[in-house]
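Hi again,

Forgot to attach this to my earlier email, sorry! This is the prediction with magnesium ion bound. I've pasted everything inline since the attachment limit keeps bouncing my files.
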Amino acid sequence: MSAPMQGIDRIAPSEGGMRTLAVVALKGGTGKTTVAVNLASRAHAAGLKVVLADMDPQGSSSDWSKSRGGAAPMTLPLKFGSLFPAQNTADNAGVDLMILDTRASSQMDTVAAVKAADLSLIVVRPTVIDLRAIAATVDLLRPLRRQAAFVINQAPCQRTGRDPVMVLEAIELLLRYGLAIAPVGLRGRQIYQTTFSRGTTPAEEDPASAAGAETQRLWDFAAEKLWPAGVRPRPAGRLPHPSFDPRGLAMAGVLSAVVPHGAQAHP
Ligand SMILES: Nc1ncnc2c1ncn2[C@@H]1O[C@H](COP(=O)(O)OP(=O)(O)O)[C@@H](O)[C@H]1O
Ligand SMILES: [Mg+2]
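Structure tokens for the complex follow:
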């Protein structure tokens, strides 16, 4: 595997070979590409050698890559049948992480991506339409028995320190599926759209911004799942913490499931 790269502060990517992260949802427009490019950018910033595989013929991830002039992370258009050979090639080439940005309309692609992945993130918006559609994605994934977590995207921002009822209700509903929920999601913010058109990400343009911080925390959560404790020691002061109302999550009993043992629910 790869020699240690500059910027790796805590991940030991050589242990256990390349990891694959799938970003999925059978419904279109939930934010798969937005989550995929932001995580790819954070992983790259952490010093990992990243390939963002664009499995959607619409090519949104590839467009983002073109807008950034092809700068890393590398983006690779990938046809369904090429996934496994591409994984082998990338692993042999010393890639640390392959992120699969999938298309909504294909059950076959989604199953293949989830089977190939160490972790699948199911992106869902806290809207009635998305939440009604999520059952189809869960039904497809559940028999595969792979590590998966929901990511709530485009949640409205908190008001007076509390999440809107629609977000709390979405959490309640998602909990019934018995899968983890990432303790941080992405809020609905225009900066995700404007940075996308520039081929950047909020964290690259302003790491201290709310969007920059939440994408960093989402990456921390994903990295923890991909390189569990022991492989990737957790640095002090970088504990993931929920951007959604922790009281809602704690009441619903999800925090213990998604916040690693010993982490503080209320940092
Ligand atoms: N958190 C967010 N805040 C604002 N806009 C978002 C957010 N996530 C996604 N979008 C916008 O919603 C649209 C669909 O997102 P996209 O990532 O392309 O979804 P998918 O890949 O699931 O089809 C895009 O216009 C995107 O910029
Ligand atoms: Mg997409």
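Strands lie at 19-24, 50-54, 74-77, 97-101, 119-124, 148-155, 180-181, 186-187. Confidence is low (pLDDT under 50) at residues 1-14, 232-267.

That should be everything now.

G.
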